[in-house]
């Protein structure tokens, strides 16, 4: 798929919130005829902990792939019967940063993501991934809160 081509992208992490977002994204993809892509980000904090623990790079890659597989499988289950995902993208790093960079590199993308509903205090002090993405993205973002 060429960059700039319209697509619906859903951020997946295997949670119930991301499954709701995947279902809504699939409904829009089906209604508009746009492809649905699945995006997961293996958290950089986990990568750093594994590196500090002395884990081999191949084992880190294996753990990241397992994380992606679980996230993608949950999203595929949520969209089953609506659309077949057109692709899967697995990134590593800070989730909000990686998602925003992905959107910058794919100007036709419309992102869907779930909001976990963290406490007000946690959101104010740390900020959530969804809030950071909305604040910094230059593309359409739909946040699903259920």
From TrEMBL:
- Domain UspA residue range list: 8-144
Pfam families (alphabetical): Usp
InterPro entries listed in its UniProt record: Rossmann-like_a/b/a_fold, Universal_stress_UspA, UspA
- Superkingdom of origin organism: Bacteria
Q: Which family does it belong to?
A: Belongs to the universal stress protein A family.
Q: What is this protein called?
A: Universal stress protein
């Amino acid at each position: 798929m060429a960059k700039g081509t319209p697509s619906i992208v859903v951020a997946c992490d295997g949670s119930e919130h991301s499954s709701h977002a995947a279902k809504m994204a699939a409904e829009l993809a089906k209604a508009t005829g746009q492809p649905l892509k699945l995006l997961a980000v293996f958290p950089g904090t986990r990568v750093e902990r594994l590196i500090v623990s002395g884990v081999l790079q191949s084992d880190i890659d294996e753990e990241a792939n397992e994380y992606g597989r679980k996230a993608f499988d949950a999203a595929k289950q949520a969209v089953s019967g609506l659309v077949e995902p057109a692709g899967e993208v697995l990134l590593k790093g800070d989730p909000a940063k990686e998602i925003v960079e992905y959107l910058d590199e794919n100007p036709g993308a419309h992102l869907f993501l779930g909001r976990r509903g963290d406490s007000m205090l946690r959101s104010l002090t740390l900020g959530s991934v969804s809030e950071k993405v909305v604040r910094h993205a230059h593309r359409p973002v739909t946040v699903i809160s259920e």
